[in-house]
Amino acid sequence: MEFDLSTGLLSVPTSKLTIDEYPPEVSDIHSNRVYFSLVIPTFKERDNIENIVKILSELLDNFIPDNYELIVVDDDSPDRTWEVAQSLLPDYPQLRVMRRQQERGLSSAVIRGWQVARGDVLGVIDGDLQHPPEVLTQLLEKVQQGADLAVASRHVDGGGVSSWSVVRRFLSRGAQVLGLIILPGVLGRVSDPMSGYFMVKRSAIANVTLNPVGYKILLEVIGRGMVREIGEVGYVFRERTEGESKVTWKQYVDYIRHLLRLRLTTGRVAKFRQKVNFPLGRFLRFGLVGLSGVFVDMAVFYLLSDPATLALPLTPSKFIAGEVAVFNNFLWNDAWTFADVSINQRGWRKRLKRFLKFNVICLAGLVLNIIVLNLVVNFLIPNPYIANLIAIAVTTIWNFWVNLKLSWRVTDVK
Ligand code: GDD
Ligand code: MN
């Protein structure tokens, strides 16, 4: 059931973020297919929503009457944008409204909207009127001329920004350059990879699982979709008149995470990783936890052994410090590094068992550390610090690998 009769609102899909090859079987009053589905993601756009729905409807009623739909996807805005949109339903037969209460975020909002879309062409436009609606017809023409993806761009003829400060222009271009370095194959294909105003053929993104973080859904579409031809249309990014931007420093962090994730999971890198099959993400988490353990070890060691504090003898101090660090590492690894595994092995007894195995392996790791250290110092590199680094690296890989196979056994039988 994708439609709630009592509220008139769309139900939120709960499946993974994949677009089907064909529109969903529609069971609501909007039972016909359309050519174009335009998603309007909103968060706190109460003062814009009526205006944009009105302008878009007039425009598209002229251009492709009855052959489009507008899908507002609101993330349960505290200003009740969804309610305003809901109140417009009787006047705009092409309008549909989704209120998301469980999930958050611009990119996933767009995908959820596309999942209920009935069109062959799927588009997105900001809900604050910063994207000039007139450009839609030119974008649609690009698609009709054969483009799989049509992007509204600030950086081609006819494009630009209205009155941005030097700092903002610099940040925007800086983000683009960084993206070009990390992901040239994706960002190099369009002049404005940051654009949130574009449309794509359903067939170009069907059946791939989209996995975006944050704001920049276009990267995901180009990075994972099967986009051959791309068309671009210039537009001027307008100033906001109502409401405010939701961009914070978090969007910049998300953007970098998104770039790295795409880098690691698409193209040649993904193929290589598939072949080698090394759980890199897990290993990095394990390493980070290990690093936290170093600090725990140092702190406890200081508290126990320092003449200014407890002044305990060296060996017992080191032993207790090491054990506390092992305990610290275990807790983090169990809750984070191997969370997906431990969640299927609940209960205190099982957890204790994992802890004991972890402990034994770490102890063996310590022995290994000492052996490697001695071997390296005596036969390879006399510098004890470099040798210790090598020993730590070897031990970390050992600890990780054996714990992966033993303490948190991923290949557990059903
Ligand atoms: N559903 C939902 N959930 N909508 C959101 C969310 C969210 O978490 N965050 C923002 N939005 C909606 C806003 O209500 C607005 O309609 C649109 O997404 C863009 O958000 P702004 O906060 O206005 O972003 P901007 O003005 O900085 O625009 C930048 O990002 C856009 C989106 O990628 C520019 O780079 C634009 O070119 C780009 O289109
Ligand atoms: Mn905006």
From TrEMBL:
Role: Transfers mannose from GDP-mannose to dolichol monophosphate to form dolichol phosphate mannose (Dol-P-Man) which is the mannosyl donor in pathways leading to N-glycosylation, glycosyl phosphatidylinositol membrane anchoring, and O-mannosylation of proteins.
Keyword terms of this UniProt record: Glycosyltransferase, Magnesium, Manganese, Membrane, Metal-binding, Transferase, Transmembrane, Transmembrane helix
Superkingdom, taxonomy of origin: Bacteria
Cellular component annotations (GO), alphabetically ordered: endomembrane system; membrane
Annotated metabolic or biological route of this protein: Protein modification; protein glycosylation
Pfam families, per database record: Glycos_transf_2, GtrA_DPMS_TM
Annotated localization: Endomembrane system; Membrane
GO biological process terms held by the UniProt record: dolichol-linked oligosaccharide biosynthetic process; GPI anchor biosynthetic process; polysaccharide biosynthetic process; protein O-linked glycosylation via mannose
Record domain GtrA/DPMS transmembrane: where: 285-407
Record-annotated membrane-spanning stretches: 283-304, 355-379, 385-404
Protein name: Dolichol-phosphate mannosyltransferase
Family as reported in the entry's similarity comment: Belongs to the glycosyltransferase 2 family.
Domain called Glycosyltransferase 2-like: residue spans: 37-204
